[in-house]
User: Fold these one by one.
Assistant:
Number 1:
Amino acid sequence: SQKIEQNSEALNIQEGKTATLTCNYTNYSPAYLQWYRQDPGRGPVFLLLIRENEKEKRKERLKVTFDTTLKQSLFHITASQPADSATYLCALNSGGYQKVTFGIGTKLQVIP
Amino acid sequence: DGGITQSPKYLFRKEGQNVTLSCEQNLNHDAMYWYRQDPGQGLRLIYYSQIVNDFQKGDIAEGYSVSREKKESFPLTVTSAQKNPTAFYLCASSIAGGNQPQHFGDGTRLSIL
């Protein structure tokens, strides 16, 4: 069966360190993968998109990698800040180019 | 500012009632989506529309209905046939054609009285 797995447990990290979040998938062949941030009681906010032919994408303190052999994407936040505390969702296209499926998300807590 | 507006933020439904959740966007996006979010589960797609007057069922369409009469609007009706409607409902829009980020509203939380 198809699965998207993100660490369901919260990730606690010290301010200033690099946070690394994992998204693994099974039985998908996504053409692209997206990462979103969601704060409590709010809708997700788009952060980054990476295509299957791209190994890495960066935006300010954010970096995403995409390994189609390992079927994994890693999401890094460098020099993490308490304001980065949120739930981070990965999403990949499934069943057609426009439809995406979301993972459960990983809750990140950055401790001052 | 462009964006997506969902209303109301909180909604209560009595047993046997249909309720309609509003979603309006002024981003000029062709594609719109409805998701349901439950604790411990990812967002699940209910319905999506790629163009006015056209929509497709998502993964959990049973007990829901939609319409897309205007580009800006994509209302979702939760019917009495939906036996477990308590959830956080999210509407999104995007440029059509895939490979595009989705812009989300801030959701409607539906509860059963």
Note: The mean pLDDT of chain A is 93.
Number 2:
Amino acid sequence: AQSVTQLDSQVPVFEEAPVELRCNYSSSVSVYLFWYVQYPNQGLQLLLKYLSGSTLVESINGFEAEFNKSQTSFHLRKPSVHISDTAEYFCAVTQQGGKLIFGQGTELSVKP
Amino acid sequence: GAVVSQHPSWVICKSGTSVKIECRSLDFQATTMFWYRQFPKKSLMLMATSNEGSKATYEQGVEKDKFLINHASLTLSTLTVTSAHPEDSSFYICSATGGRLNTEAFFGQGTRLTVV
């Protein structure tokens, strides 16, 4: 069985500061890894994904995540956050396409 | 990316009535659709997996007779909450995958259900 653990339920940071949202997973087989962002009362938007190849993946809005197989981690980072990055972030894994197992979510709160 | 449309975005219904939520894939054929439920400040809980033309597979603890799922075509799946009660109030989200897009799931906008 697969599981995902997001170690921080809330992460408050100041604007322009760096941030890391942690995600660890457990699985006995190879998985695909995702980060989603959710704004209030909205669905999920894909932020970035790791399917294969380079272990460092980047999004268009400055986020990046690195797949670390030995540590079974997929932490999300951004060197300088904006107020608009305030949202809920979910890490997820899937073994087969589509059926996602989600972490508990991390609420990122960016303060001016 | 592919587009999944969910309708309605919000609905208020009286206790005891039934509510239908639609999930449509607009530009790809969704062989598989997933329905999730999200409680406030909580993560997404998978309710069921539906494959086109087959009966849905429900996760443990989800009442099949309460949450009816139909996936009659490659672009539409519906979730019907039957005899709704206030405890069914929640945010319901669908996702879809299919064909060459089967390594990723695409999400609808979600439906906020409030039962009064």
Note: Residues 52 and 71 of chain B are 5 Å apart (CA to CA).
